[in-house]
Design goal:
Elements lengths: L3 E5 L3 H12 L3 E6 L10 E4 L1 H9 L3 H7 L1 E3 L2 E4 L5 E4 L2 H8 L3 E5 H10 L6 E3 L2 E5 L6 E5 L2 E5 L1 E4 L6 H6 L7 E11 L10 E5 L3 E7 L5 E8 L9 H9 L6 H6 L7 E7 L8 E2 L2 E3 L2 H4 L8 H18 L3 H29 L6 H13 L2 H12 L1
Length: 377
């Protein structure tokens, strides 16, 4: 089966979907309004399921070459003592690949580079019309695009999702806000990846192959709070936490700090498809970042969609297969991510924090590996 598709959204999921569709012989147009994505100045960890999806799409080798494998690290408390250590080598033995860290800008660049430039259209999609059962029309500022299939990969605030599921409440604030940045110079780190949990707060880092690192700070906060000097606020909030946190902040340019409130689809969608329109990535299952699975689930979406379109006799049956395959699984991961946040970063009651920390310290090292395998395999 071949055809034409319009992918709305040029993030990780949308680009991956476009690559997958082109690999099976489809003509694809990617519509993206932003010349630079809002999270391009951050980093990302990719688990084995995301790496395997990238391998299937033909870009896994390039991503590995640009990424830093994560073998050492774990979870700590602000004083620096360890709650749990990560055994990256054990994960690699189980899964065939380690977790890797890479700048989002580098990942976006590699995915865009796998597509011909004429497939990428700088425009904003405003609406979709599926009244014709055999064709779908996407309206943009530059006109109307027609295709056999439309992939709505336009993110957590998806305009197309709101149009298709007008009674769904849409994304809700998770209760947490995140500040993050990539250091402007290399930093000396003893570990590849760390999380540190305080009361209602988390600070973490991801090492990059070029010696730089991304750090993130997640805080319980009302939505919409912003700081005149975000980096100074981070120094005030985390300056007395263990090394290398002060070093990471000192290596950061004030203008590099990104600040986003974290939203999720707390109420699951009743379907990921509507006629010949399919939702993918955050547009379908926006989740909190506590398991590091948001992008990986979008990559899985892209591969399953392309596979279904090669094995099913019609587009309609392929989308039904995609919905059956992806909706229960991704929504289960989203629930697990929400629960992980409640027991991790969002936990603020001192007694509850103490009990959690004790439980983590007493847990066997194999328990952390099993927890990651549950979603990364």
């Amino acid at each position: 089966m071949g055809g034409s598709a319009v992918v709305v959204g040029g993030g990780i999921g949308g680009l991956a979907a476009a690559i997958g569709l082109r690999l099976i012989g489809w003509e694809v147009t990617v519509v993206e309004r932003a010349p630079v994505l809002g999270d391009a100045g951050a980093g990302i960890s990719l688990h084995a399921n995301g790496i395997r999806a990238l391998d299937i799409l033909g870009v896994g080798g390039a991503v590995r070459a640009a990424a830093c494998p994560q073998y050492t690290g774990g979870t700590r408390v602000p004083s620096g003592s360890w709650l749990a250590r990560m055994d990256g080598a054990a994960l690699e033995r189980e899964l065939g690949t380690p977790i890797v860290g890479i700048p989002r800008a580098a990942l976006h660049r590699l995915l865009r580079g796998a597509l011909p430039s004429e497939s990428l259209v700088d425009a904003e999609a405003t609406s979709v019309d599926s009244s014709d059962p055999s064709r779908v029309r996407v309206s943009t500022e530059g006109g109307v695009l027609e295709a056999d299939l439309v992939v709505a990969a336009d993110g957590v605030g998806s305009r197309l999702r709101a149009q298709l599921f007008s009674r769904h409440p849409g994304p809700v604030y998770s209760g947490s806000t995140v500040l993050r940045a990539v250091t402007q110079r290399p930093v000396e780190l003893d570990t590849d990846f760390e999380l540190t949990w305080g009361k209602g707060a988390e600070f973490g880092h991801i090492a990059f192959a070029d010696g730089r690192a991304e750090w993130h700070a997640v805080l319980n906060s009302p939505p919409g709070i912003r700081h005149t000097d975000a980096l100074a606020e981070m120094r005030h909030r985390f300056g007395d936490w263990h090394a290398p946190i002060p070093t990471l902040l000192d290596a950061t340019h004030p203008d590099a700090v990104l600040h986003h409130d974290i939203h999720e689809l707390a109420q699951p969608l009743p379907a990921f498809t509507a006629g010949r329109i399919v939702l993918l990535g955050d547009a379908a299952h926006a989740m909190t970042p506590n398991l590091g699975q948001g992008a990986c689930q979008a990559l899985e979406d892209a591969v399953v969609l392309a596979a279904a379109l090669t094995t099913e006799p019609t587009i309609e049956s392929a989308l039904a297969h995609y919905d059956t395959e992806r909706r229960p699984h991704s929504q289960s991961v989203a629930r697990a991510a929400r629960q992980a946040g409640r027991m991790g970063q969002q936990l603020s009651n001192p007694l509850a924090v103490a009990l959690r920390n004790t439980a983590l310290r007493l847990a066997p090292s194999r328990a952390m590996v099993r927890a990651i395998l549950r979603h990364a395999d």
